[in-house]
Amino acid sequence: MGKSLVEMAADLVQSQCASKAMNTEEITLALQSTFNALQMLQAGEAKLQAGTSEGAGVVGTAPGMAPEKSIQKNKIVCLECGQEFKMLSPKHLRSHGLTGREYREKWGFPLRQPLCAKALSERRKKAGKDRGLPENLRKAIAKRKKSGQAKKAGNDKK
């Protein structure tokens, strides 16, 4: 089990006494200030842990990271919690109470920006091209346009 704050403060002040001569008044003041500092640190740590464990999404835990730098070659860093992934899944974003669209809007990404590592995005793009998706998409769009024009022509005759 870990040491109590009093024990930690005593150890720190004892080390300080070993390096410099201190009278009882200085030792007392040093103990009090060290104990208070440790208490503040512990309270801050507890707040941080409570915020992340409740799924509150502590903003800024990816310290000072610019959104455009969060999407890297082999990973994407969640700007809400600071965790690294290959892809920000809808399930992970839900843990922060966000959808993909809300995440993109909040952090200033274009709505068509893939929320995955650049390498993964490139692999998917290449696989789609290999399967002929761009050509099939062009054909489907052309077919839709033709059927839309045919419907308009039919409505004009009435």
TrEMBL record:
Basic residues bias locations: 140-149
A Gene Ontology molecular function term of the record: DNA binding
Chain ranges passing through the membrane: none
Gene3D superfamilies: ROS/MUCR transcriptional regulator protein
GO terms of biological process kind: regulation of DNA-templated transcription
Biased composition (Basic and acidic residues): 129-138
Pfam families linked: ROS_MUCR
Entries under InterPro entries matching the protein: ROS/MUCR_sf, ROS_MUCR
Stretches the record annotates as Disordered: 122-158
Entry similarity comment: Belongs to the ros/MucR family.
Annotated protein name in UniProt: MucR family transcriptional regulator
